[in-house]
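User: quick one - fold this with calcium ion bound?
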Amino acid sequence: MERRKFIKAAGLAGVTGAAATASVFPKPAIAQDRIEFAMVSTWPRDFPGLGTGAQRFAERLATISEGRIQVQYFSAGERVGAFDSFDEVASGNAQGYHAAEYYWKGKHPGWAFFTAVPFGLTYTEMNGWIRWGGGQELWDELAGQFGLKGLMCGNTGVQMGGWFRKEINSADDLKGLKMRIPGLGGDVMAKLGASPVSLPGGQIYENLVSGAIDATEWVGPWNDGFMKFYEAAKFYYYPGMHEPGSMLAVGLNADFWGKLSKADQMLIEAAAAAENDWMMAEYNAKSGAALKGLIADQGVQLRQFSDDIYDSFGEAAEEVFEEVRAHSDLASRIYDSFAQARTDIGAWTNISDQAYVSQRNRVLGL
Ligand code: CA
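Assistant: Sure. Structure tokens for the protein plus calcium ion:
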């Protein structure tokens, strides 16, 4: 009851309560506790994995709150354009977005670390850093500067290196390529002489087919096959150095978040954590079969980036990280925390997941 009085008194943004008339006509408790939650996103409606995952989160949140949290979900372009999601939520026009935080790296390079960075963390490593390695605290500090609060809400796992019209046999072959690749991965490509561009998912195909871009990365076989990139570029490279475990996020308006009860915050956290798991499971379950289909049915040519090219990626990434660290004290602290987690968790990955999977697949001939 105390909280309801508080809501009536404060007239909170984003919280409906019929506060003006409540003193005359008592309202049912359910109506007084309703919370409006407008959520925008950077994904096309029903886009497999990213879009359906964001929509599943929205539905789950409505369901576990028994409809009390009234989630209105808007895909990219339905309320604002994909890349306007940040301002829509930071300003308080909407309460939340579902997005990849690296889309905001132009506002601060620290955002990139909360999706994926070159030579970064895999899904399990990322979860370790965010939950137990100080990642969430730094994310909160960064997001707080923009009036936002972020939560993990999905992951694609290791992404493919991208679609190219020609073979990439050395780093020199990247020179002059106009490639859709966002985040710090794009900065690495720029160091190697390519021209990176960031386009929302819904605009990549038309730009690739028209020749406005020469190459693109997106996600992996399941998503990329849906996009039909193979119609314009047959060479499909792996593994992507730029997004080894891309985390998706729910970004919440910080004022909205701060005024929620602890229980409602935990409902949102629980729904987001559930989606973090479900989305990754779906990518893992569907990517292998999708890749087989692309090769067998669409004539896709699978290629692996050579060690030499990877060495070039690594040198360029070091330059990019030096620039990130020079940006600000916070950028430097985010990088240092990330790098420490990569060292500590990565060393364990080497003798746990990597060593085991390597032996299992060798024995089974996978
Ligand atoms: Ca990507």
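One thing worth noting: The first strand starts at residue 35 and ends at 41.
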